[in-house]
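[Q] Does anyone have a clean structure-token version of this?
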Amino acid sequence: MTTNTSENINIWLTQINNDFKAAVSVDCVIFGYDDDALKVLVSRCDMPPYEHQLSLLGDIVHPDETTDEAAMRVLIAKTGFTDVYLEQVQVFSDIHRHPLSRVITIAYYSLIKIDEDHLLHLEKNDHLQWIEVNEINSLAFDHFNIMHSCLRRMRKQLREQPIGFNLLPEKFSLLQLQRLFEVILNIQLDKRNFRRKLGALGILKDIGEIEESVSHRPARLYTFDKSIYEKKKKTGYSFDL
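[A] Here you go.
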């Protein structure tokens, strides 16, 4: 005896309602740059069997919100900032990734500049801490894999889009910009080649000022010209550093 398509669909829906129970969550990899290192915001896990291990920040998606809204809610709650770059990276759905039940998670990453406001916010959340990415060898659940998946995406985005300028002061030196790329990409850049590529991009504006109150020789200051970048992008322009 065979069943038609409509009957198969009804059987399938019944099985889902009766047998298939899964939660959907978001896990946020919040990267922070502080001029000297690339860090990630983590907390201590209190769920067996991962007690006292470090974990990423996340939450179950509420019934009345999208996954994007859930990720932003987590980000605001943990950092206090709203205007932060946030990108969805990947779905992680391994059957045994969570010890309590079936939980499918969507990973996001954000990239912020660690400043006094962030540090002050952390004082109110003493379970949170910034740890250098290179010092993390393991995380609870599958969070180590999630972190590195987001790290690869973030580094790719940094090379292809001008997201790094959000981490610099409005006026910055070329040395500050080079340092940012070296720290986040974990590489050493040739100063001459780096500046040649910057010149070819044509998206920096020399503002005719130099650094003040520095111990080294004052450098010229620049700004990122977003309007020129947007115009160039429409013509197939490629940001590639």
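[Q] Thanks! Anything notable?
[A] The CA atoms of residues 84 and 158 lie 15 Å apart.
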